[in-house]
Amino acid sequence: MLELKTVNAFYGKAHVLNDLSFTVGHGKVVALLGRNGAGKTTTMKSIMQMVQPRGGTVSYQGQDITGWAPHRVAKAGLGYVPEERRIFTQLTVLENLEVGRQPPREGCVTWTEEMLFELFPNLAERRGNRGKALSGGEQQMLTIARTLMGNPALVLLDEPSEGIAPVIVEQMAHVILKLKNEGLTVLLSEQNLHFAQAVADQVVIIESGTQKFAGSLADLQAHPEIRDAYLSV
Ligand code: ATP
Questions:
Q1: What letters, b where the CB count within 10 A reaches 16 and e where it falls short, cover 92-121?
Q2: CA angle, 35 as apex, 71 and 229 as ends, to 5°?
Q3: CATH number for the domain including 11?
Q4: Structural domain harbouring 15
Q5: In the structure, what pLDDT confidence band is assigned to residue 84 with cuts at 50, 70 and 90?
Q6: pLDDT over 70 (residue 233)
Q7: Has residue 65 got a pLDDT over 70?
């Protein structure tokens, strides 16, 4: 579904992704793990072409999307949920969802507000409230729900469990598994293993923008030294 081949990315002269390669299979949940500053956000942005790779390719459904404009990448079916919540604080929950609405995409779920309220019951109760009245966790949920209104085939979630209450983290795991059940593919980034363990089929560990491990959770469990070397436990 998604393939990165020797992707290199820079901020000015800083070389942040270094020949990074990995794949995300159709219908899988893949966790991109690494410490603070390992390059997770830059990887997400390089996939979306918000940071344009200088070398290497990003392919989506067999098509080379390197160099595309970010809006074209989104239109092709990739939905990006950044780490910082992006909601319209002056608009209501319902209006925020409306803003995200895109035409149906063949082979993908066509999300309606009612389907999303079923997926995010907290938002259903708050549908008439303005974005600014929501808790951090609810804003995070709304950001995801709004992205789903674009009917993506692949969702990129940048540190979805970061800075939210444990009970909401649990709901978040539940949401990700439901998305997988609906046939969506998910790539999420995380700093630690805990959340990934609840949802991921595969993990990719990066450090200094280079892949250090790719495999199943069971494979990783068999190599605690890798976990200790590259993740915050
Ligand atoms: P975090 O968990 O903090 O989000 P991360 O794994 O997502 O970390 P990135 O945000 O991709 O890491 O950052 C990778 C490296 O690139 C870090 O060394 C960071 O300081 C640097 N970096 C990130 N954004 C910029 C920028 N706009 N300009 C210059 N350097 C940047």
A1: bbeebbeebeeeeeeebbebebeebbebbe
A2: 140
A3: 3.40.50.300
A4: 2-230
A5: confident
A6: no
A7: yes
Percent of the chain's residues with pLDDT above 70:
100
Q: E strands within 45-95?
A: 57-60, 63-64, 78-81
What domain count does the chain have? 1
Ligand 1 contact, 42 CB (< 6 A): yes
Ligand 1 geometric centre to CA of 91 (Å):
31
Ligand 1 pocket check for 181: Cβ under 6 Å: no
Closest CA to 4 of 15, 20, 25, 17: 20
Evaluate if residue 30 carries a pLDDT over 80.
yes
CA distance 61 to 129: 38
Task: Tell me the ipTM for this assembly.
Answer: 0.94
The atom of ligand 1 lying closest to the CA of 42 is: 11
Q: Is the pLDDT of residue 163 over 90?
A: no
Q: What ligand 1 atom has the least distance to the C-alpha of 39?
A: 11
pLDDT band at 85 (very low <50, low <70, confident <90, very high): confident
- Listed in order, strand segments (DSSP E) in 62-176 are 63-64, 78-81, 154-158
Is 33 a pocket residue for ligand 1 (Cβ < 6 Å)? Answer: no
Pocket lining: 67 vs ligand 1, CB cutoff 6 Å:
no
User: Rounded to whole angstroms, how far apart are CA atoms 155 and 144?
Assistant: 9
